[in-house]
Amino acid sequence: MQPDNMLSSEKQTILIVDDSPENIKILNQILRDDYFITVATSGESALSHINSRLNIEPINIAEVKIASKTNIINNLSNSLSNTKQQLPDIILLDIMMPSMDGYEVCRQIKNNPKTFDIPIIFITAKDEVEDEEMGFKLGAVDYITKPVSPPIVKARVKTHLLIKKQHDLLLNSISMLQHRAEILQHKAEIGMLAAGLAHDINNILFVSMMIENLIYLVPDDLKEKSIIIDYVKSTMESLEMGRDICRGFTNYLKDIGEEETIQPFPPLLKPLDMFQRTFKVKLFRDISSDLPYLKCKSSQIKRVIVNLFINACQAVESQKNGRITIRVWSENAQIFFSISDNGPGIPDHVLQHIFDEHYTTRKDGNGLGLSMAQKIINSHKGTIYCSTVVGEGSTFTFSLPVF
After folding, report:
1. What is the CATH number of the domain that holds 116?
2. Residues 138, 249: one domain?
């Protein structure tokens, strides 16, 4: 039976330090079923064992290096081949050893910032109050007196390992929170710069919309007048959409955000007309005629639709007979939008990352489109997913609740 570590299914590592092979054998027999055991037979070899692992990354399978003096230790080493090659999770340390006693070993471990948090339990025949006081003053967490009692050894080790594990998780959580705070601060700074840029672009687009007046300057008898009018209207749609995006972005950064409105779905597809003329692809539509209304932020949903459409166009750009099919339908109080292409499809190793922020397989991509789309759909309490067959194409589908 393995110990109930509660927080990890991996066996934890115990370093037993004792100059008596018989004592090592007893402790090993008590603990070997539940933990990885590493041993050292002197204070010097214990410190050497620890120092050799300070610059080694923890791995799942490794070997144990055992300092041995007798055949008992040699035989014991053969049964410890699966010990993890990493710093011990806890140390059982004998006090009375020649050359360097347990107190000095403890002192050196606790003076090293890389090892000071390893819990140390003294195993000793000493039972004087002064001895215990000395050990606790040096940083030991507990005492076990010889001859040892197996239930006590197991209980003390389990308790202190659990405390150590919780302490490590707490430190990791604090570190992660600090890292996230730094990322948020960095994103906030970028956001402020982006907001200023969006504001400036919005002003430029506003001036550019004066191109609409060009329609009135074209003579009525000009043969190409209708073509020019179509191009101007297409340009105006593009400029207006650009301004909507800029306004939505700056409002979002101001924590105002676009207001949700109750609206029909088909108008959300209007930007596709403009982009279809740009990409010149075969677009087939299957739009249900009795779609219910939905409540959404229209510019955000348009961004998702446009992003999915551009991705589909890029997927078929190398196909001779590239085609894209859009379907919109409703069922189970949801409106569904799907866009299918007959491109090369998406391999499994790419598919599992397509919604990850900054993940892209295109040299000119930034990996933000699908990540943004997922965040927008999720914020509308919807879902988005992709189904694909390599060599046949892909289908992206999102759903939104009806009003």
Report:
1. 3.40.50.2300
2. no
Quick: pLDDT tens for 79-117.
443 334 578 999 999 998 988 999 999 999 999 988 988
CATH number where 368 lies: 3.30.565.10
The model's pTM is 0.45
Q: Write down the pLDDT at residue 173.
A: 83
Query: pLDDT of 41-74, one tens digit each?
Result: 999 999 998 988 876 443 333 333 333 444 444 4
The burial of 301, by beta-carbon neighbours within 10 Å (0-12 exposed, 13-18 middle, 19 or more buried), is given as: buried
Same domain, 250 and 208: yes
What string of DSSP letters covers 223-254? TTHHHHHHHHHHHHHHHHHHHHHHHHHHHHHT
Give the C-alpha separation, 61 to 213, whole Å. 74
Residue 199, C-beta contacts closer than 8 angstroms, at least 6 positions apart: 246, 250
Question: Domain range for residue 207?
Answer: 172-257
For the chain, the 3-state helix, strand and coil shares in percent, each to the nearest 5, are 50, 15, 35
Give how many domains the chain has, as a whole number: 3
Top-confidence range, 84-88, 125-129, 159-163, 315-319: 159-163
What's the CA gap between 289 and 324, in Å, rounded? 20
CA distance 262 to 273: 23
Q: Would you say residue 364 has pLDDT above 70?
A: no
Residue 358's alpha-carbon distances to 44, 193, 368, 369, 371, in angstroms, are: 50, 19, 5, 9, 8
